[in-house]
Amino acid sequence: MTETPFRSGFVALVGRPNAGKSTLLNACCGKRLAIATPVAQTTRKRMRAVVNAPGCQIVIVDTPGLHKPKDALGKELNRAALAELSDVDVVAMLVDVTKPVGTGDEWVGAHVDHARAPKILVLTKADLAKPDQVSAQVEAASRLAHFDDVIVTSATEGFNVDAFERLVAERLPEGPKWFPDDMDSDATDEDLVSEFVREKVLLNCREEVPHSVAVSCDEIRWAKDGHASVSCTILVEREGQKGIVVGRGGSMVKRIGQAARKDVERLLGAKVYLELRVQVRPQWRRDANEIRRLGYDAAE
To answer: SS3 breakdown of the chain: % helix, strand, coil, rounded to 5?
Structure first.
C-alpha cells in the first residue's frame, strides 16, 4: 500500500488594507495571533503562523496591506509584502466582498499575476454581503489575475475556512515539517506583546493617532512566584498625540493597559504586571533607522 506523501509549504496572504488577512490567519489557527482592527494598515510585521493537519503542514504568512505609501514606513511595508510573492508555494489574494473592486485591487492583482506560485482568489467577509453582491464581486475580482482557484469565505463565521486550508494543502509540494508541532508562530513573545498593546491603542484612540503609533516591548521579567513584569514603550510623533494616548490623569493609557494585559496573560500563561510608557519621537515613520529598530523593515 502506497503511503500518502506529506505536504508542506508556505502560503502568503496578500491584499489591500482591511481585506481580512489577519482575521483569516487567526481563524485557520483557531486562536488570536495576529491583531485585527478596523484601522487600515493594522498589520506592519510579517507573521508566519503554523497550521498542522493530517498529512500536511501549512505555514501562513500574513503580510501588511498593500497601499499607496505616504512615508518611508509605507514604502517598507509594501516592499515587505511584495517580497513574499516570490518566496512562497501558494499566493492567496484576499478581496473584501463589501467594497467595489478598484484601482488598488488592480495594482495588487498585477503583482499577484506575476507570481510563479499557484494563486487562490479569496473573497472575504461574505457574512456582511448579500448573495448577489458576492456573485458580482466574484466576477469582478476574478479578472484581477489568472487564478487557479476561487473561494468565498467568512473568517468571523468560520465559513469555508477549512475549505480554504484544503485548497492550499492541495497546492503544496511534498516536503518536511518546517516547524515543530508545538510551535504556532515564528513571532517572539516580545513581538506579540507589542502588537497586542498597539491593537488596544488603535481601538481606543482617536483618528489622528493610530498611524503615528508604534510599540516596543522592552522587557519581560519573570518573578520567582511565576508572575511576569512586562515593560512597553508606546511611541507617537507629536506631544498632542501623547496627550491623547495618556488621557486625562492617565485614564487612557490605563484603559489600554487593562485591555492589553488580558491578551498578554493569555499569551504568557501567567499573571502579568504591565508597565506602559509613552514617548514622543518626531517623524519616526520617516526614519529608516527607527523603522529597522522597530522591526518594520522588509528584511525582518
So the answer is: 40, 25, 35
* Rounded distance between C-alpha atoms, residue 150 and residue 140, angstroms: 12
- Under 8 Å between Cβ of 243 and 280: no
pLDDT tens digits for the chain (300 residues)?
456 789 999 999 998 888 899 899 999 998 888 877 777 667 767 788 999 988 999 999 887 766 666 667 767 767 777 777 788 999 999 999 999 998 889 989 998 999 999 999 999 999 999 999 999 999 999 999 999 999 999 999 999 999 999 999 999 999 999 999 888 888 899 999 999 999 999 889 877 676 789 999 999 999 988 899 999 999 999 999 999 999 999 999 999 999 999 999 999 999 999 999 999 999 888 888 888 888 876 554
One-letter amino acid at 81 equals A
Ramachandran class of 125: left when φ > 0, alpha when ψ lies in -120 to 50, beta otherwise: left
**Angle, vertex CA 100, rays to CA 96 and CA 106, nearest 5:** 85
Q: Are strands 228-236 and 214-222 parallel, antiparallel or unpaired?
A: antiparallel
Q: Return the sign of the alpha-carbon dihedral for residues 176, 182, 184, 187.
A: negative
Backbone angles phi, psi at 135, to 5 degrees: -60, -45
Q: Is residue 216 a contact partner of residue 233, using CB atoms and an 8 Å limit?
A: yes
Query: In which region does residue 285 sit, left (phi positive, over 0), alpha (psi from -120 to 50) or beta (all else)?
Result: alpha
* Residue 69 CB partners (closer than 8 Å, separation 6+): 75, 77, 78
Q: Return the DSSP state at 286.
A: G
The pTM assigned to this predicted structure is 0.85
Q: Give the C-alpha separation, 165 to 175, whole Å.
A: 17
SS3 labels along 34-66: CCCCCCCCCCCCCEEEEEEECCEEEEEEECCCC
SS3 state of residue 283: coil
